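To: structure subgroup
Subject: Chain for Friday's discussion

All,

I'm putting the inputs and outputs inline so they're searchable in the archive.
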Amino acid sequence: MAAKSDLYKAAGVDIDLATDLLTKVKGALASTRRPEMLAPIGGFGGLFQIDLSKYREPVMVSSIDGVGTKLMVAMKMQKYDTVGCDIVNHCINDISVQGAEPVYFMDYIGIGKLRSPLYEEVLCGIARACKAADCAVLGGETAEMPGMYGNDFDLVGVITGIVEKSELITGEKIRPGHVAIGIASNGLHTNGFSLARKVLFDQAGFDVNDRPECLGGESVGEALLHPHTCYYPAIKAARAAGVALDGIAHITGGGLYDNVPRVLPDDIDVEFNVAGFPVPPIFKLIVERGNVGDEEAYRVFNMGVGMVWFVPENDAEKALQAIRNCGLYADRIGRTVKGAKSVRVTTK
């Protein structure tokens, strides 16, 4: 056996600490295991065998995303137990809009200096969100690079789901007269934090621990760190109830204006009226303190609408009931008309 050397540790990378911390969270990660997994976490590659008896024409759906500068708020708060949920739920939403069941997830953590409890909190958050969606954590990578990240870190997730080809949700069936149903978000989710931080911290001078009256007792940091809502259970419930989900848009960076057209046919517009839809207080604080106009606000942020479903009029009430049965707020917020793939938003 080679003699142990501390040269790498002296250069800023502690291999032993990485091993010790991973051991602490292996139980949480193992709890996400699905029968299709053929090997435990820790191999050079994750193995996942598709149960072909469940599908006639299985289509794999994959997505990759990051948490972005929300991590900077987490570091200010020294609170890391929600950002793992953020990356999982964001990725699940991105593939569920096409009808896919999430089956496995992989993470990447790039960090300047590996430390506890950051590492365990992030990975346990990932495990918690994956377990809630019956999505396996198939593997991951942690890269300790002090020369690149300094004291910062980055968090990225990759997800894979499966959907029967005949059950893909593409948006091509959307016609004039479809109802647009908005499902509530609980805050910024994982988008718009560069503007939010500039307004709240740089311009307004708030600290993460400040508690403006408009936030109802929450601190600024707590309101910003609300974890990304997972909408997959509602989609699953609606499809089981026979709702014709003809199009779904996950409202991320770009808001209603840029995300909704991604699922519209070329000859369809959407007219939204969100005047009565609840806007979380954190958005109102950002808009007021930053003097952000309505159009920019609804392009940068989700402004309380985390997902939009397009359903035929006859299915609208059934869709709303399925969403509400999952504990989420939803309401009609618009209708499709003949047009050219554009979006109009009325806020008053």
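Points worth raising on Friday:
The chain has a mean pLDDT of 94.
Residues 15-30 form the longest helix (16 residues).

D.
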